[in-house]
Backbone:
């Protein structure tokens, strides 16, 4: 049949090219992530999503929203005492850095300029009785 050899050649070429493309894309993608983001992925991302976008109605989306909470003393206290935060088993400094990744990384424009970062000292003071 005329053309079938050409078709077969094209199919072989295509099959050979796909893994190359995939490898090329994988090479371009990886970017180093910091310790705070890494801890977020391990302890929080399973529920809140690796990019802070979770299942609507079940778990609050953090991306582009969580900054509003960090802008008030009440909201900050609420964040610190959330069960999955307070009982995260992260040390004070790491938990502070995860909260800061959440607020200043995922929070984006919802985080008002001048919002203070969480410190290990604040985490310790808020949670020392419950940890
Ligand atoms: C097992 C699932 C789960 C894990 C793990 C988890 N969360 Fe949550 N998170 C929730 C749920 C559900 C809520 C809604 C409030 C509630 O029921 O406690 C919430 C609420 C929040 C809120 C408040 C958001 C809002 O708009 O009210 C913040 C901030 C937050 N979590 C941060 C974290 C951080 C930081 C971690 C990791 C240290 C974490 N969460 C781990 C399920 C989880």
Residues:
């Amino acid at each position: 049949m005329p053309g079938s050899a050409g078709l077969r050649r094209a199919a072989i070429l295509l099959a050979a090219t796909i893994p190359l493309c995939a490898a090329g894309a994988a090479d371009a993608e990886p970017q180093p992530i910091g310790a705070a983001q890494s801890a977020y992925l391990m302890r929080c991302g399973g529920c809140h999503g690796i990019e802070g976008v979770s299942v609507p109605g079940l778990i609050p989306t953090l991306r582009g929203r969580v900054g509003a909470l960090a802008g008030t003393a009440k909201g900050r206290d609420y964040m610190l005492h959330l069960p999955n935060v307070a009982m995260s088993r992260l040390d004070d400094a790491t938990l502070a850095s995860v909260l800061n990744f959440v607020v200043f990384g995922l929070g984006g424009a919802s985080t008002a300029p001048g919002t203070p970062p969480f410190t290990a000292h604040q985490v310790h003071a808020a949670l020392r009785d419950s940890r």
